[in-house]
Amino acid sequence: MKFRANPVFLVTLAGLGILTPFVSGLNPYYYDILIGIGINLILAVSLNLVNGYTGQFSLGHAGFMAVGAYTSAWITLQSGTAAGTGLFLLSLLAGGILAALAGFAVGIPSLRLRGDYLAIVTLGFNEIIKGAIQNAESLGAQRGLGGMLKHTGFFATFACAALTILVVHNLVHSTYGRGFLATHDDEIAAEASGLNTTRYKITAFVVAALFAGVAGGLYAHFKLYINPDGFGFMRSMDIVVMVILGGMGSMIGVCLAAVFLTVLPEILRYVAHLEFLPLWLRHVAENRMIFYSLILILLMLLHPQGLLNIKRQAARKTA
Questions:
Q1: Tens digit of pLDDT for each residue in 271-317?
Q2: Contact 153/88 with Cβ under 8 angstroms?
Q3: Ramachandran area for residue 61 (φ above 0: left; ψ -120 to 50: alpha; else beta)
Q4: d(C-alpha 163, C-alpha 220), whole Å
Q5: What confidence tens digit (pLDDT) does each residue in 192-211 have?
Q6: Predicted pLDDT at 3
């Protein structure tokens, strides 16, 4: 597999390093939104590998995020105030690896399934993870887990987002990545030509779960408190909507959708407090989740293939 975007990645890291001192001085509210965008980019791009490029339908991404969040938080909490940047990075890696193992564990028995059946199994797995955490006293059970130090910052979040985009982009555009696209286009024909489609689906699942676990670790060390209810079905659906709205299989579209859907609720919150607007409009904006849902419905009616229905022509060229 050839990684051809390394110079761009290095330039991105350098740019993030330059911007970090300026971004750190932002209003905490805007800084919170910015970090949320970075975390959602990781989640949406990683799920796009499964739902977009491989053609499966997973509803359990929040479960992998939960595994990473609780693993990372537990590791740093064991060291208390002695937990430094090095341990934080190791905890992110550990959370990602454990989430990847969870992805492998659920992938072996379930990825021979297709379509709706696979979606139901992954949703069930998500609920199993949530239920296990709710009954684990060492992880705070239903009351949640807190007390972590704030290690997540602008550079760490967007460096991980850039790494996720780099890995998924190069994986799909590699010779090996042809297997993902073949599985997506016609799984029966791919199997008839000798491809082990189950292996490609499991690989996509494991890579996606790994980055979801890293996103969970970043989330835990930014919010400083995590609760099992934050990793349920609705969280998984938020991520799925980003992938569908952006255009499954479109890297640029999914990234734009992740930004748009992170910022949209806050824009509606702002509109609800504009006194010069008509009262009825402010009331509509106050019920921002209803308005948010209506916008999504309209967008899907007008653009059923997503914001950017870009054909994967580049991915089909010879690597």
A1: 877 878 788 777 777 776 777 677 778 777 877 667 665 444 444 44
A2: no
A3: alpha
A4: 19
A5: 777 877 888 888 899 999 99
A6: 47
Angle at 311 between CA 305 and CA 315, to 5 degrees: 135
pLDDT at 44: 95
Domain boundaries, the chain: 6-16+29-230
Cα 251–111–130 angle (5° rounding)? 80
Q: What is the dihedral of CA 23, 221, 98, 242, to 10 degrees?
A: -50
Q: Reply yes or no on whether the pLDDT at 75 is more than 60.
A: yes
According to DSSP, residue 153 is labeled: -
Q: What is the pLDDT of residue 111?
A: 65
Q: Half-sphere exposure of 89 toward its Cβ, with a 13 Å CA cutoff?
A: 7
Please provide residue 202's backbone torsions phi and psi, each rounded to the nearest 5 degrees.
Answer: -65, -40
145: CB partners within 8 A, 6+ apart: 70, 73, 74, 77, 139, 220, 225, 226, 227
In this structure, the chain runs to a length of 319
Q: CA dist 238 to 111, 233, 249, 258, 301, Å? A: 22, 9, 17, 9, 18
- Strand partners of residue 225: 146
For residue 106, the tally of other CB atoms under 10 A from its CB is 24
Q: Tell me, what DSSP letter sits at residue 278?
A: -
Whole-angstrom CA distances from 180 to 141, 177, 186, 313 are 38, 5, 10, 14
The band of 318, judged by pLDDT with boundaries at 50, 70 and 90, is very low
Distance CA 10, CA 85 (A): 21
d(CA 15, CA 9): 10
| The token pair that represents 144 in the structure block | 């949640």
Of the pLDDT bands very low, low, confident and very high (cuts 50, 70, 90), residue 107 is confident
Contact 139, 129 (CB under 8 A): no
CA 104 – CA 238 distance, rounded (Å):
23
Q: What is the mean pLDDT of the chain?
A: 84
> Which amino acid does the sequence have at 125?
F
Cβ–Cβ contacts within 10 Å for residue 273, how many? 10
pLDDT for 158 equals: 95
